[in-house]
Model the fold of this input.
Amino acid sequence: MRLSRYFLPVLKEDPSEAQIVSHKLMLRAGMIRQQAAGIYAWLPLGLKVLRNIERIVREEQNRAGAIEVLMPTIQSADLWRESGRYDAYGPEMLRFLDRHEREMLYGPTNEEMITAIFRDNVRSYRDLPKNLYHIQWKFRDETRPRFGVMRGREFLMKDAYSFDLDAEAAKKSYDAMFVAYLRTFARLGMVAVPVRAPTGPIGGNLSHEFHILADTGESEVFYDAALEQIGLAEMEAATPGSAVVDRLQSIYAMEQEEHEKVTDCPVPADQLRKRRGIEVGHIFYFGTKYTQAMGCTVQGPDGQVLYPEMGSYGIGVSRLVGGIIEASHDASGIIWPDAVAPFQVGLINLRVDDAKCADAADELFARLNLAGIDTLYDDRDERGGAKFATMDLIGVPTHVTIGPKGLDKGVVEVKDRKTGAKEEMSVEALMNKLTARRA
Amino acid sequence: MRLSRYFLPVLKEDPSEAQIVSHKLMLRAGMIRQQAAGIYAWLPLGLKVLRNIERIVREEQNRAGAIEVLMPTIQSADLWRESGRYDAYGPEMLRFLDRHEREMLYGPTNEEMITAIFRDNVRSYRDLPKNLYHIQWKFRDETRPRFGVMRGREFLMKDAYSFDLDAEAAKKSYDAMFVAYLRTFARLGMVAVPVRAPTGPIGGNLSHEFHILADTGESEVFYDAALEQIGLAEMEAATPGSAVVDRLQSIYAMEQEEHEKVTDCPVPADQLRKRRGIEVGHIFYFGTKYTQAMGCTVQGPDGQVLYPEMGSYGIGVSRLVGGIIEASHDASGIIWPDAVAPFQVGLINLRVDDAKCADAADELFARLNLAGIDTLYDDRDERGGAKFATMDLIGVPTHVTIGPKGLDKGVVEVKDRKTGAKEEMSVEALMNKLTARRA
Done:
């Protein structure tokens, strides 16, 4: 993409409306613009990152055997009366009447709807297990929306719902999602700690929250240092039944509030770590709560009537955009992990008025495109300093600068955004380096 | 995908709630389920088709130079007061108060929001032309939602908005979208007639509707038979400035209501064709209507203040799913064009209790997956007749049946869903045929 044709309204100053770094950087980097309190438009750069995260989340859900559906954003209040949650849910639920005065709501979650779909379309135990998920916009009418997409009102969430015949099978479905979450966050380049969570008002037996570690995180997480011995590569390679799942589920990790309730923490003080985290995923096994309330049954192998055991599994897709920035930035801007970066390469032509530079930059841009390397090409008539600052701000992993001095020597300058390390190399060497990394 | 693990709740009977064939078939084929009047959940098969259409729409928007953003579903009423449309818009607009009693609405369209985004982020004529689009769910509170996804309340739409410095440049942007629409519908396998449309309440100078021809269409379209000489291939290969654009814009084509207003139709009676159509796209050039009303200006080359000229360009993505079925079905079910088919191949094992058949089917399924041919594999313990009926109903383009008699001869049976033609061939010949088609 040529920057001259793109839509990237970067801001030079920190916007006053933003309190936390990810919100500031998303506004400055032209990723989002607020349209109403807690409601954002995603500009091209932000949308690319959102879609990259969504794609990885989807791939790992599919790999785990979950099947994608898409439920609507608007739901009928009647559905929520069946589960008893219509009255129980607070003012976070956005409720309204349609033109025929029917009570409707903007879905904050989909347990009721998926249970109704399952109830109306599945008859036999032979159709189990089943895990259905969707990636859809939700609305929670937060009283004080803040922190940009980290606590917005309209937000994109992946929610999956498993249906099993018995508790043992349900634990298998739970573990499959546990593995999918480990893999998902590791692929995103994030260390995510699975924290044993209270099951709370949703009820049920087993629950984990996944917190990515970031110094600016909203929560305080206490965990056994043994967790730190499990690397990203091991998490990314996890499979259902693999030892890493048992280890992670047995190692102590709690959010502050829960940790403080524990009277005799099994972890020796010198082994206990305390870090800040951001909750980006939450998985629940809650049994027959909804299937019983909503009369969702299947016929068992002996003709008996059974209530399927359910679990639900959420990932905050839009929240992750902010979460990753909180975990990965410096004073100059965002540092995207490769897997979610909006572009792989930022190509800077230092002198657009120099025909030799312009030709070389155009030619390299064409080669990068041909090689399938998504490149943002700064072909604007701007000062070099402004171009460098923009590439740093928006966090493209590799910057390639073409200038007259380098061309005379037959080299371009290649900078690693994360380390800041610069080296000069020929275009051939650059292409080899970039294509090798993808292989 | 193995059907035994999929979620495909087909119905044997025509559902009583459906009046038109696409609605009946989408329910019967397990593509959608109604959640409230005019509000549908997309089940896995329906979602795959929706995503295939969305992908083609997106590719042609990108090719035309439009840049993707994503605006939220919920908007502030204040925004619509700026354009004057808040009071003008009828009860189709879903309005509500949030928890702080602020007036909000579920966006039926996005002219106001995109104009505000443009106004707040673009300063100079050098940033023009620009065309921003998104593919997002909209809501129109139809008083009588019907015909399934053809006239739903919550629907998926692609809407693009162009900004240009003057009328001449705006016409170029309009033509670029005109071309993108020709290509999009042709790639979807549909004959779409561009009909000169009244500009109506939205105002402005130039507008076309695109109607796909279907005997069950809701509208009546009158056009010059000369249109029929322009084939799908020519439309798909259209480029801005190509002769086909001028020809299509100059050939007579009108919807009934407009046609009846024409006192001396230029088309001789024997040249005039009358067909039923379904509106699936609509493009408008409306000038400075919104930029003036909302104070959206850019600085011109001589420092003067200019109101950008705008156009808007919509495609009903979810509506197209129904529209394509209306145009392409028979008594047995849906006939998907290859480009949007949810699976390319339906693989039927006639005898799951026969180890030789099961092995051969498993092996072929593995080969098809390896070759990247998306296959639905009916591995269920069902009668052959039910399996054939399901594949016909859901409209997979190529059916491959494995049975004991064929295996003895070293062949499988290959059926073309559209023509019904069957032939026996070896697995090697089948693989060659399928991979050749993709090349």
Notes: Chain B has 15 helices and 23 strands.
